[in-house]
Write a structure and sequence with these properties.
binds flavin mononucleotide, alpha/beta, TIM Barrel, flavin adenine dinucleotide binding, Non-ribosomal Peptide Synthetase Peptidyl Carrier Protein, Chain A, 14 helices, 2 domains, 347 residues, tRNA processing, nucleotide-binding, single chain, flavoprotein, DUS-like_FMN-bd
Length: 347
């Protein structure tokens, strides 16, 4: 798949995930074969004001490339200015893609006319995309939903409008805003949008296993597949997908040892980028996902939630690993079961 001039090694990419797709997690996903990654969504207002937290969110390591920064906002002039800010960053900080969030269902965002609210105003979408495309030579893309609700599933119109206004790809979470994360994603609508446009279409929603990823490509004809929840605590999912898609091979899931070591590495990287106390807090959810399905993980999760420093967390994880090894369980590799539901999700 090629997005503008950006060539992706495979069709399988990591979704933008607020509170989850931090730089260490993106690095782990790229190492395991994700063809592209995205930052968490960041505010276009925050970006043009140079807000410190926003600037931290858009920082990345060179080996994360290709990387997209995802912006949310609704004012074409502000979105264009934010695009300019990103384009004018020094080359090593400049992202490869600029994505627009048109899927976030949360009230705080839609009441500001951003996220999924944009789907109700196709002319505004066109103004935003053309202003952004004119402001930069970086490819502008969008991540959308099927529409606002069951009565207004305008995904095909939106995809055409995006293409007409200069977007270089569209990712589709195959649910409406009203559906949030409930029920099943409607992959048939991804197929309908793919028929309607020439730009790459990236399908998204309910890809839980490598077989699902291959099936989405086959059933919808889409160019790319975006994974969110299936990658939580399981960046190896990309390696398993590639093995299945390219060689028809079913790889074993990661062992307890691999999962715990990744947790420790993730934490170490997060300490470097976010500092000790933020890292210890942010890692709680990641650790819960890394250990999910392992023996006594509930007890360990409670202990992890009580830790106050990264060092204490590392100690706990190493102790857990040695206990598992003592019982010959460090090679244990349960089939990962991705979290369901969106939690506080933003797309
Ligand atoms: C915790 C969480 C955070 C999310 N944050 C974002 C976000 O910042 N931007 C976005 O476009 N979508 C966001 N999403 C939506 C996902 O990118 C994706 O569209 C959705 O989870 C469906 O894909 P999946 O079934 O593979 O998880 C988020 C979802 C979750 C669960």
């Amino acid at each position: 798949m090629k997005i503008g001039d950006v060539q992706l090694e495979s069709p399988f990419v990591l979704a933008p995930l607020a509170g989850v797709s931090d730089s260490p997690f993106r690095q782990l996903a790229r190492e395991q074969g994700a063809a592209a990654v995205y930052t968490e969504m960041v505010s276009s207002d925050g970006l043009i004001r140079g807000n410190k937290m926003t600037m931290d969110y858009i920082a990345f390591e060179p080996h994360e490339r290709p990387i997209g920064v995802q912006l949310f906002g609704s004012d074409p002039a502000v979105m264009a200015d934010a695009t300019r800010v990103l384009s004018e960053l020094p080359p090593e900080q400049r992202p490869d893609l600029i994505d627009i969030n048109m899927g976030c269902p949360v009230r705080k965002v839609v009441t500001r006319n951003a996220g999924a609210a944009l789907l109700q105003d196709v002319p505004l979408i066109e103004r935003i995309v053309s202003a952004m495309a004119a402001a930069s030579d970086l490819p502008v893309t969008a991540k959308i939903r099927l529409g606002w609700d069951g009565q207004s599933r305008n995904v095909v119109d939106v995809a055409r409008a995006l293409e007409g206004a200069g977007a270089k790809a569209v990712a589709i979470h195959a649910r409406t805003r009203a559906e949030k994360f409930e029920g099943h994603a409607h992959w048939d609508m991804i197929a309908a949008a793919k028929q309607a446009v020439g730009i790459p279409v990236i399908g998204n929603g309910d890809v839980r296993t490598p077989a699902d990823a291959v099936r989405m490509l086959e059933q919808t004809g889409c160019d790319g597949v975006m994974l969110g929840r299936a990658a939580f605590g399981d960046p190896w999912v990309f390696k398993r997908i590639l093995a299945l898609a390219e060689r028809g091979e079913e790889l074993a899931p990661p062992t307890a040892e691999e999962r715990l070591q990744a947790g420790v590495r993730h934490l170490g990287m997060l300490v470097k980028t976010a500092g000790e106390s933020v890292a210890a807090k942010e890692m709680r959810k990641h650790v819960a996902w890394y250990i999910k399905g392992l023996p006594h993980s509930h007890k360990v999760r409670e202990q992890v939630n009580r830790t106050r420093s990264a060092a204490e967390m590392v100690e706990l994880l190493n102790l857990y690993l040695s206990e598992l090894a003592a019982h010959g369980l460090d090679r244990f590799a349960p089939e990962p079961s991705p979290p369901t539901g969106g939690g506080g999700a933003s797309g």
